[in-house]
Design goal:
This protein is an all-alpha fold. It has helices spanning 2-11, 14-27, 36-61, 63-91, 96-107, 111-123, 133-156, 163-175, 177-204, 208-225, 230-258, 263-274, 280-288, 294-324. The two termini are 18 Å apart.
Length: 326
Amino acid sequence: MELLDAIRANLLSPAVLFFVLGLIAALTKSDLKFPEPLYVGMTIYLLVAIGFKGGVAIAEAGLAQVWLPLLAAIGLGALIPLWTYPVLRRGGKLPAVDAAAIAAHYGSVSAVTFIAAANYLKAINQPFEDCATAFLAVMESPAILVGVVLGKLATKSTGGVSDGSLRTAMHEALFGRSIFLLVGALVVGALCGEAGMKKVEPFFVAPFQGVLALFLLEMGVVAGRRVGDLRKVGLFLLGFGVLVPLVNGTLGVLIGKFAGLGLGGATLFGVLAASASYIAAPAAIRISLPEANPTLYLTASLAITFPFNITIGIPIYLEIARAFYL
């Protein structure tokens, strides 16, 4: 009953309801569409805001208290593609390049899923470490790099890769817009500290929830327009998009606990492990592995895993964390 109540509370949050509104708009073929510059602007705002706040939190906590969870986050981000890749190859019988592309998406993270989880924890008065945003920043790149290398090794066996393309892939994974903004804002926040936060708080704190609601409205529209692709990806990928987040989320909670995080922090660590990227990873994969089928990796991450996590996954990861912290 507690889990059902938690899921109900999450479903009735403004962010999730706006996401559902976007889904309905797409399914009813409404002409609702955000201008591309507005979507890009909201993305930049959200990434900078969460990165800056995470940097301030690191400055307050001190690097000595967060280095172990940060190292664990980097390691987990790199390891997830290594176990999801063979599952996709053998279980799903997918081509190597498609398996690598999907694995990269599931090892990388979703900033909006993280924000939704943090909002949910705040709504139920569950405390968590403010520096958790730093985990988001460091988990973006490792999985993309590992996924791209797996894909490049697969295409190399057929003569389809060059050193130049691999360098381009690594550059995109390390300096792509979302990763650059997250890490850059994190560094700025760490250097400015609480004094710097007070100067920008009216811009980065007060409007944040409203911008998030609009962003999720657009995400609902985008996800709704990909619902038709579910027929193309098959039952395997549908199951993969739900079961793998549950496995990764459980693993993330356990690692978060052993890294010294509290219940709330471990829950957010699990949410990050369970999420799938739909901003940073698609941009890098499109450039680095053009042979990969976008229908597969975009539908899996955006039309299956993202809605699952944003609606019922987050409360489930909290209950998993509670079970480990009894």
